[in-house]
From TrEMBL, chain B:
It comes from Neoroseomonas marina. The keyword Nucleus does not apply. CDD domains: ABC_NikE_OppD_transporters. This is Phosphonate C-P lyase system protein PhnK. Keywords: ATP-binding, Lyase, Nucleotide-binding. One of its GO terms (biological process) is organic phosphonate catabolic process. The keyword Lyase applies. GO terms for molecular function: ATP binding; ATP hydrolysis activity; lyase activity. NCBIfam families: CP_lyasePhnK. Residues 6-246 form the ABC transporter domain. Gene3D superfamilies: P-loop containing nucleotide triphosphate hydrolases.
Length: 284, 252
């Protein structure tokens, strides 16, 4: 484990910046699903690598917290390892790969398979916080649409999918209504994870660094995926069992094993998968 | 006569020193087709924009069923624009979403007012495409692959799908060739009669006004110089400007 670096404030950001972030977070929690602008700082990693998530984590991190960072469900990928090491060096906090032991989970593109608790916070890295961005490029106009709760446009997009493909083709960043009021982009998590957001006991915070927006879903808030009555929302999952742990419930990644068409499906959540493997080995 | 649905009084609007509207009053009753004619720059389109709440006047009021349109909140005005009202733009590209299929365009207003059943929305879209004489096989095509006349008919279908009570039309036949114009006018006339629609139509085409309108208003330099029943105004014009306008129509 690398030692705590000298010369940096706790968790890298200065206290005034953290205060600004916390005010934005409080406002976001007070208005579930509403995007709050904030003054995103330059971070020692590029935009698109989680600058928004890392700033939110820095603002809520305390010395007694235990941090878990996942990237596409995995704890051992570059992005996850770098961010974990970053906070070890600038804040000296404990880190873990176990979902159950973490108090703060920063994530890119997944929600852990294991259900989260009231004493946990999940921080999402968000590339594009505006769910209407592809449909209405003008920021001033989307702001007005949000304020008037005028979301027919999003349904037009879903209608187009069904007309063209026979089903709603959006498989990630699937738009949701929060608390029956705000349309929200859940960040690029698979649609499979959307139901986990509904009435989740943990606080959910979303940070978009490049776009300079923070939004939040407080614990036990209704999060509903958009759909049609005759084309209900379906979480999509590869119809296989995990090659390592045999799970038929978890979200799977497809792994190409050779150049002759060989492939296998494994859990995207590495902690969940290794936990199940360990359990099975213990039983044997 | 019953109380008019749309009542405007004393509308005045200046663009800098230029008077766009000067003390304009207009009523539209239920099921009535009213045409506003006049030369370019006479304030026709501005009047339409003020009446439909898109632009606030300097003075005067617009009342819809007794309620002041410019005093209500933006949310209420937008709701009005997509339920009780419709707006057909001169250029169909302004009124359509060109990257959304014809069916999606017709369905948008339905979805905006809360329709959430795909089958019903599609059924409604198909029936409206039939009403405006667009082939059902084109439902999933993008409007940019349509001809100008078809785009305009699609815009009308998209506007009428929520059964508005009043439709504002800003030169709906502008830029179309005469045979297409004739069919479109025929379509507007039959739909407005069938559905009991009120229509407020802006046009510089006197022949179109005669064909469609019950009443006619002649505008010049922001003022209504003459108004009355269509046949009366066109057959017996009183104001010199109306006389000029009527006499300058080309006969084929």
């Amino acid at each position: 484990m690398s030692p705590v670096m000298e010369g940096y404030n706790f968790a890298y950001l200065d206290e005034a910046t953290k205060r600004m972030l916390r005010r934005a977070i409080l406002k976001a929690v007070a208005i579930p699903g509403h995007q709050i602008p904030f003054g995103a700082r330059e971070m020692p990693l590029p935009y698109g690598w989680g600058t928004g998530g890392i700033q939110v984590t820095a603002a809520i991190l305390g010395p007694s917290d235990t941090l878990k960072v996942i990237d596409q469900g995995a704890d051992d990928t570059t992005n996850a390892v770098s961010i974990r090491r970053f906070f070890t060096r600038v804040a000296g906090v404990a880190t873990t790969e176990r979902t159950s032991e973490a108090t703060i989970i920063q994530t890119r593109h997944r929600i852990p398979e294991q259900a989260l608790r009231e004493d946990q916070v999940i921080v999402y890295q968000v590339p594009q916080p505006e769910p209407l961005s592809r449909l209405e490029p003008r920021r001033a106009e989307t702001k007005r649409l949000h304020s008037l709760a005028d979301y027919g446009l999003m349904h037009v997009r879903l209608y187009e999918d069904i007309a063209r493909y026979g089903h709603i083709a959006k498989a990630y960043d699937y738009p949701v209504m929060v608390n029956g009021r705000y349309l929200m982009a859940p960040s690029p998590i698979p649609a499979f994870d959307n139901p986990k957001m509904d009435r989740m006991p943990a606080l959910q915070l979303f940070g978009a660094g490049r776009e300079k927006r923070i939004y939040a879903v407080p614990p036990y808030t209704e999060v509903k995926s958009l759909d049609f009555e005759d084309h209900p929302f379906r979480p999509i999952r590869a119809p296989h069992a995990c090659a390592l742990c045999g799970s038929r419930e978890s979200y799977l990644d497809e792994v190409i094993t050779d150049d002759r068409g060989g492939r296998l499906f494994v859990c995207s959540d590495t902690d969940y998968c290794s936990g199940r493997v360990a359990l099975r080995e213990a039983a044997e | 006569m019953t109380r008019p649905m749309l009542e405007a009084r004393g509308l005045t609007l200046h663009f800098g020193a230029i008077p766009a509207l000067v003390d304009v009053a207009i009523d539209v009753a239920e099921g009535e087709v009213v045409a506003i004619v006049g030369e370019s720059g006479s304030g026709k389109t501005t009047l339409l924009r003020v009446l439909s709440g898109l632009m606030p006047p300097d003075a005067g009021t617009v009342r819809w069923l007794g309620e002041d349109v410019h005093a209500m909140g933006e949310a209420a005005r937008r709701r009005l624009l997509r339920t009780d009202w419709g707006f057909v733009h001169q250029n169909p590209r302004d009124g359509l979403r060109l990257n959304v299929s014809a069916g999606g365009n017709v369905g948008e207003r339905l979805m905006a007012v809360g329709a959430r059943h795909y089958g019903n929305i599609r059924g409604e879209a198909l029936s409206w495409l039939a009403k405006v004489e667009i082939d059902a096989t084109r439902i999933d095509d993008l409007p940019r692959t349509f001809s100008g006349g078809m785009q305009q008919r699609l815009q009308i279908a998209r506007t009428l799908v929520t059964h508005p009570k009043l439709v504002f039309m800003d030169e709906p036949t502008g830029g179309l060739d005469v045979s297409v114009q004739a069919r479109l006018l025929d379509l507007i006339r039959s739909l407005s009669r069938e559905l009991g629609l009120s229509v407020l139509i802006v046009t510089h085409d006197i022949a179109a006004a005669r064909l469609l309108a019950d009443r006619i208003l002649v505008m010049r330099r922001g003022r209504v110089v003459e108004q009355g029943l269509t046949d009366r105004v066109l057959d017996d014009p009183q104001h010199p400007y109306t006389q000029l306008l009527v006499s300058s129509v080309l006969a084929a």
